[in-house]
Amino acid sequence: MSIDGKYGVPAVAVHTDIFHPVTQAVVRVNGMPRMRQVYVQQPIMGKTPAQLREAIDGQDLITKRPFMREVIEGLTKPLAAADTKDSSFDRSTPRFLEPDTEENLEKLFRDNFWSDMLPIVMPTEERVEAMLKGTSRKRDEMVGRMRPTNFREFWAFDVEKVAVNAVMAGARPEHFPVILAMAASGQSARGSTTSSAAAMAVVNGPIRKELDMNSGTGAMGPYNFANAVIGRAWGLLSTNLQGGSTPGLTYLGSQGNNYAYTSITYAENEERSPWEPFHVQHGFKADDSAVSLFRGCRSTAFTLGLRERFWETHVTNLLRGMDPHNPPVYVLDPITAQQFIDRGGFDTKEKLIEWTRKSAMMEMEEYWDYQLIQNYIYPRATYGEEPYASKLNVAPGTMIPMFEEDEIHVVVVGGETNGYWRIMGASYGATVSVDEWR
Amino acid sequence: MAANGKIQVFNPMGFPPKVTHKPLAPRLDTLDGKTVYLVDCRFDDSDIFLQQMQAWFADNMPSVKTVFKPISSVYTKDDPATWEEIKANGDAAIVGVGH
Predict the structure, then answer these.
(1) Model pTM?
(2) What value of ipTM does the predicted structure carry?
(3) Which residues of chain A lie closer than 8 angstroms to B23, CB-CB?
């Protein structure tokens, strides 16, 4: 849109047909509803040049007219009155919905994708007022902005809007500072990515005990009220405060992701961890309360313990099974955290991270052939961005690291019923203060 | 609680930005003799697709000069350097393949 609307060069955008609704919505909210767009078959990925030429010689899959005629007319057909008509509009919404029965409102929330399809707590005035007592901040104070992906527009929100969504999730006022911190981060738990990524949140500091959060047995499962409602609130507020998470429009995850219901929210087991707490690694003091947010949660690998003879091979096998664009977060039961010290001498998280970078290696041709590496890393490498450029400028057959140290993370959680542990593929976003939102 | 068992609840949605109209660029009279940039978003084999479009122009409209131009980084980032280049050296652009 920039090249046409901002730089004054006539342009046509080519999309695949399944994205017709979303591309029409995007140009509308960007004030260019008549942007010229043409559509070919989904997918183009993996097709031969001959197959793609056939598509070009064929029809636009939306208009059913010759594809290249649409392209050429998009660049040469004079603008009509409808093209130059002012397309500005105001999307302000009322503060309250029309009164209705609870049953009808439940349906309204579901029909508008304002909920996660599970029953919600209705955000009445009384409940929202009670939630607002969980913070010293004013109800009309602006908290932040959020959007479902980089090329969508930001929506804004205040304390009251966050409280509304916290109520819907079933949270209580004491949970509200954590939920406000998550909202203020601007990190969405409902990215629109076609990859069906979910999010993860790790809580550190005294707030864990104040809220009776679980960092032990079953911490990542449905066994703790605070873990559950805080994670659910992050998902609901992301859905509604970023302008939606509606399949086909603002959510495009092809398969979806069950992790998204509560966004894998738990407390780190600081008491049983042999290492520095996660928030301290990221600039906070141990007695600060903070929440760390991750995105891109799709893959999970697991094994039991670390065997004396082949532990390095076993861990490397797990790492090698990951997509190199989805870096590892070690999610370790305290038993296994201690084993990493006993077997590998990793008496800090940083030493485990350093070992991981050196151990998870891949032949350069194989690395650069991954589709996500082609989409997101190769363009940056070709324009000289490090460390990617150095990984590209090596001889064929050279082994290169799959992940960089700043992408690799370690969290300790679990109740020591056994030494099972996981590697979650996820990207670290931010660690934000909870105390600022009390 | 409103009358007839009805309740009043808050709207959960955030505050959307106002939509501001952006005018489309004037269209060209013809593509004959013009330079058309084929801008590769570098996503899921879009380069192969646009190279086939380039071949189509060579076969069917040889008077059109085409320039295959990959964007400077990943598709999620705006690319003013590329847009400036096209504005300076080109007459039109075909951008793809979006998803």
Answers:
(1) 0.93
(2) 0.92
(3) 5, 84
